[in-house]
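Annotated sample (chain length 292).
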Amino acid sequence: MNATSTGALLLCRADPETVRPLAHLLRERMLLTRAGEGWSALVPEGKPWRGPDGGAYGTVDANAPGGGTEPVDRILGGWATALAVASTWPVIALWWDADRAGCSLAAGFRRPVAYVWLADGTPAGEDEAMRTLAARLGLDPVLDLQELETLTRPDPDADAAARLRGLLAVLTRTGLILPPGLGPGESADRLRSVAAVQRGAERVEWAGWRDAVRVELDAVENSGLGPWVRGPRARALAAVQLAVGLPLLVRGARRRSGGWAAAGAALLLQGALGLAYHRVRAGVRSEPVRLP
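Output written by the structure step:
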């Protein structure tokens, strides 16, 4: 891989119809496409991680070493966390550039787990990460885990892209199937062009808080979650979302981190809707709701 092959993917273990409303809350332009049975792929349309030197860096972060920019793994990890904490399905972020490649798994409120390889395929992570990944994705604790653990051992014939393809090969047993050309080592431009021509592919773009509320309410009403969107359990969950969302939003604003800010915004919105579901539903239908 070289500087021109910088790229990133978000793999969600849910159908596009389920992913769409939450993807809007990332406030990033992305392409959404199906990626096998029960999986979806989100491809960023922009290049927020590309620095002036072609390296994989993102938004300006005054707290970053050297006062520079935010690394691509942190940006993708933030996006994955934003999607996972506001849903019931896990999200895997894949990214690669001229120097490194890696993956990050976010699932609910649990701490994300990540693994990194150098460009030549040299492992640069902890073996425990693969065991955690296998457990959270419900993979076979023996056969699948053995294959994942081989990705953490030295192999002079496997570069970083090959390591990520090895990870994807294991995930095919869960139904994940990426179209040809939509995978590790491809450039961001190539990823976008491939995703755009997939059957059923659609563009996800931020259209303001009013539309975000409507999309979220429609998703809730069609989810069939029953007591999880109404009653005591729903109110308790909403309170937790508000309590966690505000600190994340503040942290994202202070560090100028789009990923963490998106996670906080998603949690705050879902928590607010959870506490006032019926009132907001009626308000949106009769158009008196005032949102920025």
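Annotation: Residues 232-255 form the longest helix (24 residues).
Annotation: Residues 50-68, 223-229, 280-292 have pLDDT under 50 and may be disordered.
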